[in-house]
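Question thread 4412

I'm putting together a teaching handout and wanted feedback from people who do this every day. The idea is simple: show students a protein as raw sequence, then show them the structure tokens that encode its fold, then repeat with a second protein so they can compare. Below is the first pair exactly as I plan to print it.
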Amino acid sequence: MIDSRVIPVLTATSADQAERACRALLAGGLTTVEITFRTDAAAAAIRRVSSMEGLTVGAGTVLSVEQLHAAIDAGAAFAFAPSTNAEVIESAHAAGVTFIPGAATPTEIDRARSLGCTIVKIFPASVVGGPAFLRSVSAVFPDVRFIPTGGVTAENLADYLAVPSVLACGGTWICAEPELTEERAREAAAA
């Protein structure tokens, strides 16, 4: 599902913007993108870029069953949430799509595990303790892989990726300035 250790997080205001960003990501060597459901353009953006060759597209900030189904219908291969919602997880399992819930505490990680999730998004990673937090929770949840987002930057990316239980990192910095997307993707891919 995720073929890159760095997942750009894109909040698209239009399908055209998403396409331009994703072309820059591919040119920079990144092949996975998370398009957030923070704008009304999310489903159209996912629909537009999900057919791009070589790109794996997921949905982010999926907070409801309705958003999950909109993401799936648009072509999302996976979905992320900043929290753990049992109803959304059950719907994702029933639909056969990978859903990665979010957590910020050991209790929330354990809840996600109890709902059958072995990959958990840690959000907001930098606020809850960064790589040190991930090393600590990895010791008590050895069966869980983590995808930290929220405060991951070009400067601290290597520290996060050095934690063995970190599957990948999500980052908004890559697409934050459209004219720098390809360059930042290239730098992140090299990391």
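The second pair follows. I'd like the answer to focus on this one:
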Amino acid sequence: MRLEDFAFDLPPGHIAEHPCEPREAARLLLIPAGGPFADRHIADLPGLLRPGDLLVINDTKVIPARLVGRRGAATVEVTLHRDLGGGQWRAFARGARRLQPGDRLVFAEDFAATVADKSPEGDVGLRFDLAPERFRAALARHGTMPLPPYIKRPRGGDRQDRSDYQTIFARAEGAVAAPTAGLHFTRELLARVAARGAEWVTVTLHVGPGTFLPVKAEDPRLHRMHSEWGLISAEAAARINQARSRGGRIIAVGTTSLRLLESAAAESGEVAEFSGETRLFILPGYPFRAIDLLLTNFHLPRSTLLMLVAALAGLDRIKAAYAHAASSGYRFFSYGDACLIEARGESPHPIPPPLAGEGMTAAPPPPQAGEGRGGG
């Protein structure tokens, strides 16, 4: 397995700078376990579900974690990524090598932090001398949404991203990146999912900065994942297990939900109550236990998320799907379109083929699953 196995070329014009409006108009590429791909739209999702299916959705809430301030006469930009409590935060900083313990970073007249330490991993410790309520209020006033670096915004951000980069499920504050598959959902779409006889349940995984960090090791197995905190309540675990026992499919909405489910799953596929951190890194060869389908956006080349979907569908099949998407004008990455991937293996309720007369187009048959290079 080599890092270059997960490379692909994408013209810059395919990177979505803003979400599709209305959200349900976003495109959806079906990647079944076998047979041709099919081009659909998010609005078609309810018709692809079966009564008894269960969507598992991440309800984390993105905080406006990016701050621009001054260190003396110099401009400094930091992105908070871990709350240690008591006003202590870990953060990434542009020009971190110039920062020294004791430096004071001023973000506003009433909002400043002191550099507490620097770590070998490249981040810094910051100390804010504000009570929790005052800190949250100051962050809401002066922070901006921590968009990924490939989405270009003027310094100070775009106010529209405050709503655009937050899912309708957002409840538990703590993420520094959105669980982007959830961005496609609207209340109207959920009503149609319910009318179909399918259900949904929420879990929490606070998406960390590791989702943006590139894999640098030539052998991806040497890459070290950042930990992320997650929660599956006893009630959510029971609903997931009940859905599976009655023959429903478990559909992870986003790679974050998938990683959390797999972190809490036994070999039998039963999901346990979970509260804690996970560093689960899914590579080709991983034996999926908890999910049947994954709804997810298109991911960066050489990323841990591309490695995850390659493990689910097969590397050659995913690369063929991405090539089809690029040639067909799909929009990529956080604000882009989505795909629905069926796990390899026999499914009692596979994704139905496109119906005649729906105006959808099927791609030529891709390579068979399991033929990916480095598939383990």
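Top answer:
Good format. For the second protein you could add a caption like this: The helical segments are 45-48, 132-142, 161-164, 187-195, 234-245, 255-263, 304-313, 315-327. The CA atoms of residues 244 and 250 lie 7 Å apart.
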